[in-house]
Amino acid sequence: MSKRHESEASVFRIPPYYYIHVLDQTTNVTRIEIGPNTFVRKDNEQVLLGPEKMVVVPPRHYCVITNPVIRDECGVVQYDNLGQVKLAHAEDEIRLQQDPFPLYPGEFIKNKVSLLKVVPALTALRLLVNRDFTEDGVEKKAGDEMLFEGPGTYIPRKEVEILGEVKAAIIKPNCALTLRALRETVDRDGKARVAGEEWMVRRSGAYLPGVYEEIVSVVGAIVLTDKQAVNVCAQQTFTDSLGKLRKSGEEYLITIDQMETFIPDVYEKVVGIINITTLTNRQYCVVVNPVDAAGKPQLGARKLIKGEKSFFLQPGEILEDGVQDVFILGDNEGIVLRSQEAFTDESVTPSKQRQPGDKWMLQGPLEYIPPVEVEVLTQRQAIPLHENEGIYVRNIKTGQVRAVIGQTYMLGEDEELWEKSVPAIVKSLLSTDRDAAADRGDWINKSKINKQTGQSSGEDDGEWDPTRVVTIHVPHNAAVQVYDYKSKKSRVVFGPDLVMLGPDEQFTQLSLSAGKPKKANKIRTVALLLGPDFTSDLIIVETADHARLQLDISYNWHFLTSEDQKEAAKIFSVADFTGDLCKALASKIRGTVSSVSFDNFHKNSASIIHGSVFGDEPFMLFPQNNLKVTSVDIKSVEPVDQRTRDSLQKSVTLAIEITTQSQEAAAKREAERIEQEAKGRLERQRITDEALAEKERKQLIFLQAESAAVESTGQAKAEAASRAEAAKIEAEAAVEGAKLKAQAMKIETDAELERMKFAREADLHYTMEQNRMEVEKNKDMAAIETEKFKAMVEALGSETLQAIASGPQNQQVRLLQSLGLKSTLITDGRTPINLLNTAAGLLGNFDAQSS
Q1: Per-residue pLDDT averaged across 508-516, rounded?
Q2: Contacts of 345 (CB under 8 A, 6+ apart)
Q3: 19-51: per-residue pLDDT in tens?
Q4: Running DSSP on this structure, what letter comes out for residue 18?
Q5: Residue 834: pLDDT band with limits 50, 70, 90
Q6: In the chain, is it the N or the C terminus that has fewer CB atoms within a 10 Å radius of its CB?
Q7: Do 485 and 591 fall within a single domain?
């Protein structure tokens, strides 16, 4: 049925806890009908709603009703003069657990039935007041915020709105909570806070911030140790946790002596962690800007701290050059010092007054810690020198340079090592690792070659020590010239000897021609070889008939030496003696050869050249440098003209070809003979090998036939034997199986008989033992009853029994009951007894006891 038809029905059955809304169309008033009821609709009435189930609010639930009805103090619904319920329009009413209730016309549920919010411990609800109200005598204004702290169940109010949930912060040990006030409030310790103020909560546990409190951060404690401290800066003037007033911008140190753990306050900033500075008994340090006992830094001052000691650097203090080791000077060590200010030096005996700028040196053995007034310039060690070693020493006051040779020498406070300037060519010539050409006195200008090719220099200048005295070992049969620029004198040293240069001395360099033909400046050397030696050269001469020839000539020479320095200096007077020698002799040879014909020169070249060089003398002497030429050797003579060279070559080639052809023919005949002999030996060997192969093949065929026969016979025998053996094994296995099966059945039968025998014996023994124990039990019980009755009778005595027997009937009965007798008969022997009644009585008692 449609809703329209339902509303037009005449009879409405309203179940319990249901209701309907009925509109009286005459008065236009809507009323409510509540079940259980049977409602008969009139013609002027209309059912607007229902039947609808009443609203049920179970325990710990609530709902919000909009436009609630107005009730009086007793909870009775108020109606107007027309009979319409009065509503609080635009109002909300929160209803908690109660009996099911209907919704009056105009009421509706704003929020459905919901569970009340349970606020656990360490949690609170943040609430906002929407309208003014008074709670527990406290007036709440619209816009205020408040907290509902758990544990508890929050009952909603229409004047309050839930903003959110606030959870407590857990403050762990060695931690603190930084809070900020959002507006003027009172914290949980009862202290007034202004807006923006920050403070810390240090106690461990849970802390629930107030309604106007904000958690800024959780600050962890810094654990202080014996080796670490904290450098703290105050951001504004306040009193710290130690009760000390700190000024804004002040820096201070917190150590373990003050507290074990440090939590920086809101007005404190941790600048850094300061590690302890530890000095051993062999260390010291200088502290710049030290802090005095009052905690004030002494700017510009310096403080010396000697080990053994451990300390923390205060804020503003710095270590000058860090932790330094004590100067421990040995016998061959010294230290150069300079005074920076006037002070009394007590490191020497007697003490001495030092002025600013004074320099002095202390020599070991000693231990020295420089005061703050002293600057350590350098530490020196004695330089041990062999008798063939030396150093250049310069006095920085006078500028004088001298060479110290062959002793252990320590520089004074006014002395320094002087670097002697030596040309790069001389360094290379004096180097011990130069190539083989340099060992002969040759030198190649590597820097020039590298510059041309774009490569870097391969010389290692780091191996050259310019402060060492320059030395050269003059080889045997060689000479070196040394020139002193200060005295303007030179000296020549002949080998073998050692030359050591003074501060103002330099070697005379020689630049000699080399190669074929000779080229200038190819050999650089400082040691001149005296010979005898030879020099080779290529020269071109022209004969009288204009034949141009190239001669390869070698000259033997040596120098004439003398002990006189003036005569000895002559050998160095010509810088390029090889070039001059070759040029002079080549000109003589050309002049002589130009006057003879080619044929004559070809036949008598040695005598012609020897005569042109020496003439009638056995040698030739150059007086300028005492160079003596003793012989001339002609290595080769080659025509320069190509046609002449081709003709000579052709004739030589023809002779060689004739000789070669004859040798080839002889070799060919010998090779053919050897080949024929080899072929004969090869054929004989082939025939022999074929005969042996046929013999072996025959033996192989015989063995194959014999093997096939053996194989066919052996297979048949093996199959028959295997079948017989298999049948025998099967029969033996069947017999053995039958035997084992019979044995197994016998064992099983014996075991079953044995088991049954043991079982019967056990049952018989159990029954006999049980009967025996039952008999013993009955005997014991009878003996116990007998002893009991006897003891009771003896306890009562014969007089008591006699008195009871002569007493009334009821006493006798009680006596018997006390003795535990169920039935008894007591008589004196003279009075007759009606046994029939007695038996009936006994039977009656038995029945009663049985029941």
Answers
A1: 89
A2: 339, 351, 352, 353, 354, 374
A3: 999 999 988 999 999 989 998 988 888 999 879
A4: E
A5: low
A6: C
A7: yes
| Vertex 314: Cα angle to 313 and 315 (nearest 5) | 120
DSSP-assigned letter for residue 832: -
Q: Measure the CA–CA gap between 511 and 524, rounded to whole angstroms.
A: 5
More confident call, 236 vs 647: 236
Q: Assess whether 822 and 673 both reside in one domain.
A: no
Both 759 and 810 in one domain: the answer is: no
Output the 3-class SS for 687-721: HHHHHHHHHHHHHHHHHHHHHHHHHHHHHHHHHHH
Any domain includes 543: yes
- One domain for residues 553 and 588: yes
Do both 390 and 461 map to the same domain? no
Q: In this structure, are 577 and 594 located in the same domain?
A: yes
381-398 pLDDT per residue, tens: 999 999 999 999 999 989
Q: Which whole-number Å values give the CA distances from 758 to 745, 752, 765, 770, 771, in the listed order?
A: 20, 10, 10, 18, 20
Average pLDDT in the 195-213 region? Answer: 89
The pTM of this model reads 0.50
Q: Are residues 399 and 497 in the same domain?
A: no
- As a whole number, mean pLDDT of residues 704-719 equals 80
Residue 147 has pLDDT above 70, yes or no: yes
Read off the DSSP letter of residue 293. T
Check if the beta carbon of residue 639 is closer than 8 Å to that of residue 545.
no
Mean pLDDT over 103-108 rounds to: 91
Please, is 714 exposed, middle or buried when counting C-beta atoms within 10 Å of its C-beta (0-12, 13-18, 19+)? exposed
Start-to-end C-alpha separation, the chain: 75
Q: Which domain holds residue 838?
A: 798-850
- Whether residues 584 and 451 share a domain: the answer is yes
Q: What pLDDT does 559 receive?
A: 92
Helices (H) and strands (E) in the chain, counts: 12, 58
Give the range among 339-353, 610-624, 740-754, 825-839 with minimum mean pLDDT. Answer: 825-839
Amino acid code (one letter) for 282: R
User: Is the residue at 437 inside a domain?
Assistant: yes
Total number of domains in the chain: 6
The answer to whether residue 664 sits within a structural domain is yes
Q: What is the CATH number of the domain that holds 465?
A: 3.30.479.30
Instruction: Look at the block and give the residue holding tokens 């009288």.
Output: 544
